[in-house]
Amino acid sequence: MANNQSSDFRMSPEYQKIKKHYKSIITLVVLAILAFSAFFQIGAEEVGVITRFGKHMRTVGSGLKTKVPFIEQVYKVPVERQNKQEFGFRTAQANVRTRYQPRSGSTSDEALMLTGDLNLANVQWVVQYRIDQPHNYLFKVRNAESTLRDISEAVMRQVVGDRTVNEVLTVGRAEVASQGKKIIQDLSREYTLGIQIAQVVLQDVNPPDPVKEAFNAVNEAQQEKETLINQAKSEYNKIIPKARGQAEETIQKAEGYATRRVNTAQGEVARFNALYREYVRAPEVTKRRIYLETLQDVIPKLGDKIITPEEGNNMIPLLQMQLKQNNQ
Predict the structure, then answer these.
(1) What are the backbone dihedrals phi and psi of residue 195, each rounded to the nearest 5 degrees, phi first?
(2) Among residues 41, 46, 40, 201, which one has the least CA distance to residue 130?
(3) Pick from 168, 125, 28, 145: which is nearest to 77 by CA?
(4) What is the distance between the alpha carbons of residues 159 and 289, in angstroms, rounded to a whole number?
(5) Nearest to 89 by CA among 204, 208, 215
(6) Mean pLDDT across 8-13
(7) Secondary structure of residue 196 in the 3-state scheme
(8) What is the model's pTM?
(9) H helices within 170-315, ranges in order?
């Protein structure tokens, strides 16, 4: 009796109406799920790598995109974002006032390196990179981030191990960063990580704590040495050019004096030769002319002059008059 009532209910219009209503709801739910799965959004700094059953199908840019629901899968890769990996330290909070985590055992192990002269140095650095080949980044290497970290640490230990501790601490820091970037980029390309290295920055390079005071004393001595050398070079640049200028001036004066004396001697020789030629032509006239010219040159240099005849009597009044004039 109960079975007949249940059968009659299923055949009733009310049951058919309820059944149709539930089918519509299920259909709408399925369509909503399909629609939700078919559309996806790619950010402005991202690309979408779409795979179908694990095979790479295409790469799409930013915006609203579609895919085959439940068959295709999307991996969003931030290709325009500047990423970084920190070694020897960790940033706990990056803000206006950046705060770093206290050094732990793992970061200390990363930072502690052996230099080429068998000294130790604590080297902290940052590798900044960008993903430029999303397909390689996702599928060529199992974990590209971890691989890049291992490569970076190995390369920096190699580069630091080829230099002395003084080079790493002082003048060789830029070269260490530059060479480290090149080798990391070459290995990343060789391993097809799909990563482009932007730069390697040495944050802080210090000697280990037990020997830090000794290293600081050595650095201060080296800086003082450089200061004294620079001061000596400065004094050298002041004095030596001045001395060279004075020497050149003395040489030029000597050369001018020599030239003047030579020219004077040559003029005197020419004058003597001219006088000699005239003397040969007329000896008496030449003698008299030379005598008069000599007197003309000598007499003005004598000051007051008194010329008297042999008797000298007629000049006494004149002398007395001159004495009166001088007294007045």
Answers:
(1) -120, 135
(2) 46
(3) 145
(4) 98
(5) 204
(6) 58
(7) strand
(8) 0.58
(9) 173-190, 212-281, 283-298
- 254 token code pair: 């000597």
Nearest to 137 by CA among 71, 199, 188, 198: 188
Scanning the structure block, which residue is given the tokens 């795979």? 51
Confidence grade of residue 1 (pLDDT, cut at 50, 70, 90): very low
Return the ∠ at Cα 218 (arms to 213 and 222), rounded to 5°: 145
Rounded Cα distance between 316 and 178, Å, is 109
HEC profile of 65-115: EECCCCCEEEEEECCCCCEEEEECCCEEECCCCCEECCCCHHHHHHHEEEC
Alpha-carbon distance of 161 to 159, in angstroms, equals 5
What residue type is assigned to position 103 of the chain?
R
Question: How distant, in Å, are the alpha carbons of 95, 104, 113, 220 from that of 89?
Answer: 16, 8, 14, 27
Q: Using the structure block, give the residue that is written with the tokens 């004094």.
A: 235
